[in-house]
Amino acid sequence: MQFSVKVIDYQKNMMLNICDFDLLGKDIVQDKLTMSISKSYYGEKFVNKEEAESLLKKSSIINMVGKNSISLSIELGIGSENGVKEISGIPFLIVFKI
Hints:
Elements: E1 2-10, E2 13-20, E3 27-30, E4 33-36, H1 39-42, E5 45-48, H2 49-58, E6 61-65, H3 67-75, E7 85-87, E8 90-96
Parallel strand pairs: 2-6
Antiparallel strand pairs: 1-2, 1-5, 3-4, 6-8, 7-8
């Protein structure tokens, strides 16, 4: 399982943008809403499951798109299924750790 990630130092916090590898570069459209899963936002590097787990645990702010990314975060106790939203069947979740 591979993920595409971008790590950003944001106001002294580690922000992680992570998506399922196969979603990178796609636009998801539902009605008038378009979500771009761009390489500039999610595509700094590709990582395996173990590295993704490590990044998820260390990050304070996480933007996630895709079933695998969100399943992994929920498995780790990060985020909640109640917060998951979908656009055209593609789940996304934003987590702020306090």
